[in-house]
Amino acid sequence: MATTLTTSDLVRQSLTSRKTDRLGTLLAVALLVSLFCVLGLLVTLIASIVAQGWGTLADRGLEFVQGALNPEPARAGVYQGIIGSVLLMVIVVLVAFPLGIGAAVYLEEYARDSKITRALTANIRNLAGVPSIVFGLLGLAVFVKLLSGLTGGRTVIAGGLTLAVLVLPIMIITASEALRAVPTSIREAAYGVGATRWEVVRHHVLPVAAPAIFTGAVLTIARAFGESAPLLLAGAIVGNFLSNGTMSTWQVVTEGNYTALPIIVFNWARQPQQEFRAITAAAIIVLLVLLFIVNAGAILLRDRFEKRAIRG
Amino acid sequence: MSEIIQREAAPSEAPSSPPEVWHDFVLDVRELSVYYGDFQAVRDVDLAIRRNEVTALIGPSGCGKSTVLRCFNRMNDLIESARVEGSITYHGVDLYGPDVDPVEVRRHIGMVFQKPNPFPKSIYDNIAFGPRIAGFDGDMDLLVEESLTKAALWGEVKDKLDQSAYALSGGQQQRLCIARAIATNPDVLLMDEPASALDPIATLRIEELMAELKQDYTIVVVTHNMQQAARVSDRTAFFTVDVRENGQRTGVLVEFNDTSTIFTNPREQRTEDYITGRFG
User: Fold this and answer.
1) What is this structure's pTM?
2) A114 CB within 8 Å of a chain B CB
3) pLDDT in the model for residue A309
4) What pLDDT was estimated at residue A141?
5) What is the b/e burial string over A149-169, where b = at least 16 CB atoms within 10 angstroms of the residue's CB?
6) Stretch B232-244: mean pLDDT, rounded?
7) B266 touches chain A (CB under 8 A)
8) Ramachandran area for residue A2 (φ above 0: left; ψ -120 to 50: alpha; else beta)
9) How far apart are the first and last CA of chain A?
């Protein structure tokens, strides 16, 4: 039987024969498991923090956010930490963004492809992997001691500069990659109508790369936001900041002590009293919410950039 | 395998045309060789591009025709390893002279690329960018309209000038690129396979456009498509790949003549083989 198979039968056979792709299925399952592992860890972490800290936030609410530091856990707040962290971010944005983007534009658009350029790029990549505590030492030696005339010693400026240097390599790398992703055809088109190098970069390369550069910048901010080790070395303390009523804002920034949310978390977590557990978790929640707000704002901004880049 | 083919300058072979004088050559190429690092991409090319004509550069892949074209507006300067020997004079001025600014060269010698590459900006801004950076202070709206009209695109886009150029079709994008190139009022238009990414209808429109544009501009076009060269060009330069015994492949110019002569009565066997499809 089945002596004559028509073409259509043969085709049907070859199209419908379903081999079991065991390895493929296994791989898919493994991938799914790894995804759940990561998600599970994250959810556990957040859940435990929220469980510990929610009570404090629910009871004290704004009072916790607006309250000053206090050795008494029941009255301690994180206001100074928020202000400190925000000030640090402002300095990071002001310093690391222009320097990082500038360095990346130079490396990608201006520098010739020489041994020196390649060595520089390799070194920048290595710098990105240097532990943050090392940058803290640098901050202590350079910004706190050496340049104390400029930064005022252990001030928020010294801390901000330290964080800026810390994220600079990451900033340069992400910006470089964003620039490299801009199609050559756009550069050629601009050169073709008689644009100078700067006009090509300014009018065509940077606008196209802007969304990706921005994404990188947001990640670097998030990194800097959560750092505590370098700040501990670069002079952040718990207390005093903003509490001296006789100082003007400018004096506080240029002369006064400072603190930041991660420093408060670090400090409270070391306290032996049980009560500090809850407010530590609450401070972490505040930190996470702030990070979330920064990220969300950045994404909104980036979308606007993207639209502008396409619409012209 | 093959020695360099010497050839005459075109004038003596065109008895019907009046005696040529030197300044009718917009671009005069002498013994041009181009290297990428140690690799010689093109060897000893001699060419003369005449005013208000379409000159086609044809030949198989890797024969260096695009490389030669990109020397004319110093686009090869953007490739770090590229090096040019020999001379290219533009109206008698050495294009590679020490005082020559490549940016200025590109304002005189515009370029249209193989793949349509509009800026990711509005149609209007695509046209206006070149004039703007060149310091144009006249009526920009008028210039945009004129450029688009010359590129046979005005009717299709006049109501959506502020829309993204990316919303146009491939053929429209390429005509936009042509409009962009002529907006800076260049003297010469270089076209690097301008229709190879387009469908036949869009290709035809580009070809018609070239025939019109040569009234105002001198055009040099690189094409893979021999029928296209036959249809649009006045003169044709046929390049091929010369393979040395050590395996090095270099582009050489085989024959340069009136298009009709190249296609009906080529002097070189290699030219005939190529245009009759017996190449390789």
Assistant:
1) 0.80
2) no
3) 57
4) 85
5) eebbbbbbbbbbbbbbbbbbb
6) 91
7) no
8) left
9) 70
B82-105 confidence digits (pLDDT tens): 999 999 999 989 999 899 999 999
How many angstroms from the chain centroid is the CA of residue B275?
Answer: 20
- B243 CB near a chain A CB, below 8 Å? no
Q: A24: which residues sit within 8 A by CB, 6+ positions away?
A: none
| Collapsed DSSP state (helix, strand, coil) of residue A74 | coil
State how far Cα A128 lies from the chain centre: 13
Whether residue A297 has pLDDT greater than 60: yes
Among A249, A275, A312, A244, residue whose Cα is nearest residue A90: A249
pLDDT given at position A20 = 73
3-state secondary structure of A70: coil
What count of other Cβ atoms lies within 10 Å of the Cβ of residue A196? 14
- Number of A/B CB contacts below 8 angstroms equals 79
Using a CB cutoff of 8 Å and minimum separation of 24, what contacts does B65-70 make? B65/B222, B65/B237, B65/B239, B65/B251, B66/B192, B66/B193, B66/B222, B67/B34, B67/B41, B67/B42, B67/B251, B68/B29, B68/B32, B68/B34, B68/B42, B68/B239, B68/B251, B69/B190, B69/B192, B69/B220, B69/B222, B70/B190, B70/B192
- B106 CA to chain A: closest CA distance, Å? 5
User: Which one, of B253, B181, B266, lies nearest residue B218 by Cα?
Assistant: B181
Residue A235 corresponds to which tokens in the numbers above?
């002079």
Is A191 an interface residue toward B (CB < 8 Å)? yes
Give me the interface pTM, i.e. the ipTM: 0.85
Query: Token pair of B174, please?
Result: 């390429």
| Closest by Cα among B58, B24, B62, B59 to B250 | B62
* Interface residue B103 vs chain A (CB under 8 A): yes
Across-strand partners of B236?
A: B56, B257
Chain A residues with CB under 8 Å of B126 CB are 312
* A interface test, pick of B70, B107, B108, B119 with most A CB neighbours within 10 Å: B119
pLDDT of residue A308: 65
- Cβ atoms within 10 Å of B229's Cβ, excluding its own: 25
For residue range B204-233, list pLDDT tens digits in order: 888 998 998 999 999 999 998 888 899 999
Q: Which residue of chain A comes nearest to B190, CA vs CA?
A: A192
Q: Does pLDDT of A199 surpass 90? A: yes
Backbone angles phi, psi at B42, to 5 degrees: -140, 140
Do B133 and A312 count as a contact with CB atoms less than 8 A apart? Answer: no
Interior angle at CA B7, CA B1 and CA B11, nearest 5 = 165
CB of B82 within 8 Å of a chain A CB? The answer is: no
